[in-house]
Amino acid sequence: MSEHQAAVLVGPGQPFDLTNRPTPSPGPKDILIQAKAIALNPLDWVLSATGYGIESFPAVLGSDVAGFVVAVGAEVPADAPQPGARVVGMAPSFFFKGAPNYGAFQELVLVPYISVTPLPDFITFPEASSLPMAVQTAWAGWHTLGVPLGSHYSPADKKAVLIWGGSSSVGTAAIQTAKSLGLVVYATASPQHHDYLQQLGATKVFNYKADDVVQEIVATVQEDGVTLDIVFLATGSLQPSQDILAALNPSGGATLASAPLVAADAPQVEGVTVKFVMLPFDEQQQVAYVSRIFQEWLPESLDTGDFVPSPPVQILDGGLAAIQDGLTTVQQGVSGQKLVVEL
């Protein structure tokens, strides 16, 4: 059996072990991808530090991978990417509880074919690697907020959303998808990112560090004459968004979808329901939803340029060996860029 190099997590809070492990053969519905670029996510740091959700060790983490198809399983349809194709995929390490064959932090990784998207030649592997987690989380957020894939609002609907943490990878994906849904898009970010987020589709962007940001957003929404009863929290704390929703919806009925995990003791505000971002709970519905994202919506949107990889990537030197320090940087906070390793 052939082998490949992997960054293996041997235990919670332990350093990654660069080691060789057996290269698996694809299961019936899997695609084996040779990784050329891997993006780092806050979730990766949380899992590596805490071991949350990992069934056993050693484990391999990582979700975002771009590269070449090496082999496909017996039940992968002919119209799915085949050996030699350039692809990007959502490795299911988190959903498979750290199962080593399905983590992105290695040279060869298994990904279910429903989560693999063919990659246009004009998008580089590092750019593409920023896509999967952010795109899936964005659409999971819209599902959670009752705005599922295929929805569209007209200008006459005057339906708005606030995306808090707009310069993160999830935030930029949420902005672009919100625009495609026909929503009026408000976002928050540091001032240096405002122009970029407006280029992606944000109508107005606010400095989240400003002392009066809550009052400023409430006043702007009221002046614009739109309805804002939903918030997508891409990153950051709950309280400001809750206060904004409460002020704009005194009769209640507002909803906040949070990409970060919601703590059990998180603050509650009357009239504002806080939900953790989730895909459809029913397994068949979830599979169908994910398939629509990665096999229909994303390929078409990339080809037409309606959706672009974002934010800009920063490539870390050292390949798999750079993951350890890269996640430390992620923990400390990254603004307006995505950290990526190349193989």
TrEMBL record:
It comes from the Eukaryota. Coiled coil: none annotated. Keywords: Oxidoreductase. InterPro entries: ADH-like_C, ADH-like_N, ER, GroES-like_sf, NAD(P)-bd_dom_sf, Trans-enoyl_RdTase-like. Residues 13-341 form the Enoyl reductase (ER) domain. It holds the Pfam family ADH_N. PANTHER family: HYPOTHETICAL OXIDOREDUCTASE (EUROFUNG) (PTHR45348), ZINC-TYPE ALCOHOL DEHYDROGENASE-LIKE PROTEIN C2E1P3.01 (PTHR45348:SF2). Belongs to the zinc-containing alcohol dehydrogenase family. This is Chaperonin 10-like protein.
